[in-house]
């Protein structure tokens, strides 16, 4: 068993997604501006990078496609595209029913974007037996990057994000990290509404302000098996 006391945990929350075309961005931003929830931008737009791990038989992928009630994905995430080394966080994303939460070990790894081998690309900042156990029998399957816009309601209870310029760098057959060859996912943007479990009732109210009908969407699944969403 993993010693979860060494991880911080986010609150359980609701995540509702919809997929739009890039041509819908003006409409979406206008809806955010006119929303009754007076959204503001708490952070500037930034690039998100994630290494997704899975077992040799793609158990996480299979669970996600089948929509099982309990699912778990392992990823290492960092922000920006600086050529110098940067800290990265180990995230274990859990989903049970319609609720999701993350177990985190912040700044557990160091990413060196110009490295030629996995050993030099991803190095631990300090010893962590738990991290080794969590990634045991898992391999990096894809690196996913995208640009994210953040919006937060006036009371801080609901967050809206827009993800675009999604790219997949396949890692399945790589003995070294593939940071050069990628597949762009140019036909859509991902719009997401998020709120903690205690604020679940607000999600239905926020949805009324947007041209929204929820869809199941997984960036990891999309990176391995591209789908038609529109």
Give a description of the structure:
The chain is an alpha+beta fold. It has a single domain (4-224), classed as Beta Barrel (Hypothetical Protein Pfu-838710-001), CATH 2.40.320.10. It contains 6 helices and 11 strands. The protein has helices spanning 25-34, 59-66, 118-121, 129-134, 200-207, 219-224; strands at residues 8-9, 13-20, 46-54, 70-79, 86-96, 99-111, 122-124, 139-152, 158-170, 183-185, 189-196. The protein has an 8-stranded antiparallel barrel with strand order 2-6-5-4-3-8-9-11. Strand 4 and strand 5 (86-96) form a beta hairpin. The radius of gyration is 18 Å and the shape is globular. The model has no long low-confidence stretch (mean pLDDT 90).
Summarize the structure.
By secondary structure, the protein is α+β, with helices and mostly antiparallel strands.
Task: List the defining traits of the structure above.
eight-stranded antiparallel barrel; single chain; Hypothetical Protein Pfu-838710-001; 18% helix; 230 residues; alpha+beta
